[in-house]
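Weekly structure sync, notes
Attendees: PL (lead), two postdocs, one rotation student
Agenda item 3: pending single-chain targets
PL asked that the sequence for the first pending target be pasted directly into the notes so everyone works from the same version. It is reproduced below exactly as submitted, 80 residues in total.
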Amino acid sequence: MTIGDHTLNIGPVHLFHTRVVADNGRQAINALNSGKAAGTKVVFRPRNGEHFRLFHAEIPDDGTPLVPAPLGLPGYNDPS
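Predicted structure, written out during the meeting:
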């Protein structure tokens, strides 16, 4: 995770969002269909300017809902 100019290694995480679009989805599909998709990168983004939710991959799922945890950093507006 990069915050400002600092990198914080929090371990393996999963990204989650229910409404994600591929910015270059049509280009990626065309590359797949033409057999030229090697090296193609697909950019995924949550709709409506929302944020991905991350959860730690090595912490067992206890079944509780994913709730954003604010970072509480001065000058940083935590997503809601």
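Discussion points:
- Strands lie at 2-3, 6-7, 13-16, 20-22, 44-46, 53-56.
- The chain has one helix and six strands.
Action: rotation student to compare against the earlier draft before next sync.
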